[in-house]
Design goal:
mainly alpha; two-stranded antiparallel sheet; 5 helices; 45% helix
């Protein structure tokens, strides 16, 4: 679960309470897993993702196909959000 950038003070408090563990640049809440890149796309068997899976990452063909994801995704935000809820994901952010 990506948490974004916490202030140093917030990180300190959460780490001391055992609620936050740092993994490289990403921060995660202990006992939770982070969403993996393209997990939704693979799970719903998106035809664009299936094409990407069969191509060499970084190749010209791959980058051309990937443009579909960037500018003309076959799925809606509503579908993605509801898929996240069905899979038990939480969307969190630090308090302001």
């Amino acid at each position: 679960m990506r948490l974004g950038i916490y202030s140093t003070w917030t990180q300190y408090i959460l780490q001391n309470r055992g609620l936050l563990k740092l993994k490289g640049e990403a921060m995660s809440i202990e006992g939770y897993v982070e969403y993996k890149k393209r997990e939704f796309c693979n799970d719903v068997r998106c035809p664009v993702q299936l094409a990407l899976n069969s191509q060499r990452e970084g190749s010209e063909e791959y980058e051309r196909t990937r443009q579909t994801c960037k500018i003309d995704c076959r799925h809606t935000t509503w579908e993605f959000h509801h898929w996240l809820m069905e899979k038990g994901y939480l969307i969190v952010r630090p308090e302001k």
